[in-house]
User: Which sequence fits this backbone?
């Protein structure tokens, strides 16, 4: 009996010893878990502080940017300048954002982008064209930056008077006026050219008899439905900065038709509406096939 009791006591002692060892083994694991949690918390706190700083910086830039747009860059600089490095950095960020937005706006409205060339001795201007929300051709123009600005290589169509526009706009003192006038001519040309393309695509019953490289003259052959009378319609775009004609002439065998109220309205419509859209209206009203 004593031997069994002794074995029982030894068994209990052995079990207690194993439990004690088990308890001693757990604390390091728990300590590691605590360290990992503390490390995660520290990382999250750092990330939170960084996000707060970014938000505050962005709010300051937006505030300064709004002041620049409202008052002008120079006035906003004076108002927000406290002489610190942070202030200088914020003003630089705001100006950079403003410049990026201006360049993007110029591009969207068919304006121009400028990059330096020849190690800063010249610039290349890219003038994008578009019509009715569709980007069309982009033209490039090099300008040498010397004492006197000089136009270098370019791929602008020869019928666009680049040199004349440079003289008229006084490129030497106001290069923006020159680029604005050139962009206006190019976009007007692109718009007229696109209209001719749309007439051919949308109006199979209308025949384009004649046009020129500048798309400043457009001669169409229309047909009146009932009498099947052929009508010769000439659109003259004398103002090369616009997409609408300055003069519309109607000719046909029926001498009374051009002077009729309906066709007088059609002539006005063709002067005030892009030709491909005007033809759609005329077709809906039953004036042409």
Assistant:
């Amino acid at each position: 009996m004593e031997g069994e009791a002794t074995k029982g006591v030894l068994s209990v002692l052995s079990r207690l010893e194993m439990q004690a060892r088990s308890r001693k083994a757990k604390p390091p694991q728990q300590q590691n878990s605590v360290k990992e949690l503390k490390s995660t918390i520290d990382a999250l706190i750092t990330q939170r502080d960084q996000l707060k700083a970014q938000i505050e910086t962005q709010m300051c830039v937006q505030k300064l940017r709004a002041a620049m747009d409202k008052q002008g860059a120079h006035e906003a600089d004076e108002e927000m300048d406290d002489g610190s490095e942070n202030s200088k950095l914020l003003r630089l960020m705001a100006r950079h954002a403003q410049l990026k937005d201006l360049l993007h706006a110029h591009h969207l409205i068919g304006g121009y982008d400028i990059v330096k060339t020849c190690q800063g001795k010249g610039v290349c201007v890219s003038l994008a064209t578009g019509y009715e929300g569709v980007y069309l051709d982009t033209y490039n123009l090099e300008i040498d930056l010397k004492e006197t600005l000089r136009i270098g290589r370019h791929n602008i169509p020869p019928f666009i008077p680049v040199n004349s526009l440079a003289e008229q706009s006084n490129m030497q003192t106001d290069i923006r006026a020159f680029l604005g006038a050139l962009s206006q001519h190019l976009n007007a040309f692109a718009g007229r050219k696109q209209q001719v393309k749309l007439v051919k695509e949308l109006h199979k019953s209308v025949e384009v008899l004649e046009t020129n490289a500048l798309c400043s003259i457009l001669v169409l052959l229309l047909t009146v439905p009932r009498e099947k009378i052929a009508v010769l319609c000439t659109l003259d775009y004398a103002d090369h900065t616009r997409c609408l004609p300055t003069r519309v002439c109607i000719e046909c065998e029926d001498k009374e038709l051009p002077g009729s109220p309906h066709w007088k309205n059609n002539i006005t419509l063709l002067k005030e509406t892009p030709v491909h859209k005007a033809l759609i209206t005329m077709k809906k009203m039953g004036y042409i096939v």
The first strand starts at residue 112 and ends at 117. Residues 67 and 171 are 31 Å apart (CA to CA).
